[in-house]
Amino acid sequence: MATLSPILSIMVRAAEKAGRVLIRDFGEVEQLQVSRKGPADFVTAADKRSEEIIFEELKKAKPDFSFLMEESGEVTGNDKDNIWIIDPIDGTHNFMHGIPHWCISIALQSKGKIVAGVIYDPAKDELFHAEKGTGAFLRGNKRLRASGRNQLENCVISTGYGGMDKQRHSQFVEEFSQLITQAPMVRRMGSAALDLAYVAAGRLDGYFERHIKAWDVAAGILLVREAGGMVSSIDDGSDPVYSGNIIATNNQIHGDLHKILKSAKQKAA
Ligand code: LIP
Question: What is the residue extent of each domain of the chain?
Fold first, then answer.
């Protein structure tokens, strides 16, 4: 593998250390499915333990950096310009159900821009990484490139939807019903970070989701852009890291997919 930069090495080391513990926990989760209550408490503990491991590793390497984390929230350091954005398990429900499609996502935001991202899938031992201006890679030096498909009917599009109130539900139903008439191959795989990594890798041609968090998407947004894809917010020109709504594509179908989502929003209003 090409030599990683010092900052990516720090991020990869933290992700792999947490991943070793999580893959052991994941093995135990599969045994807990039979219990009526299920492994929810066990997975919550795994989530928190993963975040603690990542936090300690990054803090040791960069003591002054700040943090934004899914479980522990914000930790402001002396250096407010550099912020680690961490999802210790993205795809938590997959993890909880013993489905091997979850990951660790770590991004570094510097002066308001995402400059480095690592998405690690321990179950498949795939590590995606990118640094601003230097490309996106799958460990082993495989350069990631977004797909070239430009006809929606040939594209695989992923999406997600969290808990929904009535308004959200009707909007999603309208988006989905309009989408499948033009792009019938839609997937709901349960991890925003891996959805974005797969757009960067050309495995998916597009992804969109509303009511999503910065830690779900920050690293993946950089991967998609460094792989030649395009990322924007769905509803306006705001930063998709924090807007809570995102559309990411191979660049070829961005306008077509965006048009469907905007039309659906108007119809559902
Ligand atoms: C998940 C996202 C997924 C979304 C889920 C959830 P988590 O993140 O990756 O795309 O649909 O509702 O937000 O909770 O597993 O970190």
Answer: 6-143, 152-268
Length of the chain: 269
Residue 128, CA distances (Å) to 3, 54, 167, 229 in order: 14, 17, 35, 15
- Residue 199, classed as helix, strand or coil, is helix
Look at residues 191, 204, 221 and name the one whose alpha carbon lies nearest to residue 85.
Answer: 221
Q: Is the pLDDT of residue 202 over 80?
A: yes
Condensed to tens digits (0 to 9), the pLDDT of residues 16-48 reads 999 999 999 999 987 887 777 778 888 889 999
**CATH code that applies to domain 152-268:** 3.40.190.80
Strand, coil or helix: what is 265?
A: helix
From the list 207, 233, 240, the residue with the least C-alpha distance to 107 is 240
Rounded distance between C-alpha atoms, residue 235 and residue 173, angstroms? 17
Q: Measured in angstroms, how far is the CA atom of residue 88 from the centroid of ligand 1?
A: 12
- SS3 at position 112: coil
CATH superfamily for 6-143 is Fructose-1,6-Bisphosphatase, subunit A, domain 1 (3.30.540.10)
pLDDT band at 266 (very low <50, low <70, confident <90, very high): confident
Q: What order do you get walking across the sheet with 230-232 strand by strand?
A: 185-187, 156-160, 206-210, 245-249, 230-232
Report residues whose beta carbon is within 6 angstroms of any ligand 1 atom: 70, 87, 90-92, 160, 162, 190-192, 209, 216
CA–CA dist 179, 4 (Å, integer): 39
Q: For a pocket test of ligand 1, which of 51, 72, 86, 90 has the largest count of ligand atoms closer than 8 A to its C-beta?
A: 90
